[in-house]
Structure formats: structure tokens, C-alpha cells
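Q: What structure does this chain adopt?
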Amino acid sequence: EISGEDWTYVKKDIGLEDIIENENSIVISPNPSQGDINVIYNNDKAFVGKLSLYDINSKEIKSIENQVLNKGDNRINLNPVNNGSYLLVFKNKDKIMTKIIIINK
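A:
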């Protein structure tokens, strides 16, 4: 572990299985969406972390602290959000999951 004044770098080895699990952990529907999304979470262990929505300029549009995803269907309202493409990021100390979503009202 290496630390600086405003940052910390922690090296963590991951295997191909970790990447595949991360890619398949969530499914977003509908996509495109009108602002309400269904997040299908495919992991037995509940996820608790921060949900962030970023626009194409990397500006954070919305964030929800302590978002809980249980295995199965989870409804999340992203409104008010304008039409466009966004990066949806779920992050906690153990995992980062990202998906591209389209809002089209």
C-alpha cells in the first residue's frame, strides 16, 4: 500500500473469474429507460454502497449513498434526468460495477 496526501494506492490481484463475475453481477432494464430502472443483481451477498450517475462529460448527475441491492430485482428512480447516455456506477470497498444506460423520455 502506498499513500499520498490525498490518495492511497492498494495493489490487488484479480483473476479472470473476478472480472467475469463483475461483468455479470448486474443487468439494467429497461435500457433505454424513462428514468425508472430495474437493477437485476445476480449475487447472493447483498451489495451496499454508493450509486453514482455520470454524464458523458464525467460530471456526477446523481448520487445515492448506502444504496442496497439484494439478489433479484431492485427498482431505482433516477429522475429527474435529461435524455442522454450515462454511466451508472455502483461502488463500495469491495466492488465496482458499471453499466452504460440511456435515458429517453
